[in-house]
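Lab notebook page, bench 4
Experiment: in silico fold of construct C2
Operator: M.H.
Input chain length: 270 residues
Purpose: comparison with the prior construct
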Amino acid sequence: MSQPTLHDFYRPLGNLGPKVSPLGLGTVKLGRDQGVKYPNGFRIPDDDEARMLLKLARDLGINLIDTAPAYGRSEERLGPLLRGQRGDWVIVSKVGEEFSDGQSRHDFSAAHTRLSVERSLKRLETDYIDLVLVHSDGNDLAILNDSEVYPTLAALKREGKIGGFGFSGKTVEGGLKALEQGDCAMVTYNLNERSETAVIDYATEHGKAILVKKALASGHACLSPGVDPVQASFELLFEHPGIASAIVGTINPLHLAHNVATVAKVLRKN
């Protein structure tokens, strides 16, 4: 029997135009192995392994890829790895967080926001990024109310350098505020954590996009014996028509194929 794919289940990315696969590939593990909260250690894949993973993702119908400057070398590796494939991918990157020497630091100024996006364009070898999200440090409302990051992203959108912008935050208030002027919110939503449901509901009512991070609770989802945590997680997620895609950051081809098969099974039932 052939492996199920996600080609039949693409969803609108809010009102931004592109349709995206309900599962997106997170790429932190392509670029960084320090300061990441996963239950098991891992080795960063070499170029051949990364190329094979990206090819598998594409063959399985995944067209959404999620990266960030804070993901170590992720962006600069993706540029060459995706060369000649720009039309096949919807690329999400971020601004606001830098990671070096094992430490994160944040900068939401206009100058840094513009520098960061220009640098991402260069690293990713593209003249536009489909969606850029603010990588919050947790002070969501202060970032949105007191910094220049959102007006700068709005200007970059007008210039055609980014297709849309939004916020990867940590609070309900931040998510709601971010969607008033932005195109997308990235929320934590899984079997253990549902506090940002109101943000998903708001996005659904207003035609805005929702991306989900930590959909599988970063590998920590725990349920009663006999229940498949991956299937239960995706069933919870895709009850919501407003969720465009869940970002899952696996570098294991078997896990990737299993996740795709599970999502296809859940959406077929829906």
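Observations: Residues 7-269 form a domain with the TIM Barrel fold (CATH 3.20.20.100). The CA atoms of residues 178 and 212 lie 15 Å apart.
Next step: discuss at group meeting.
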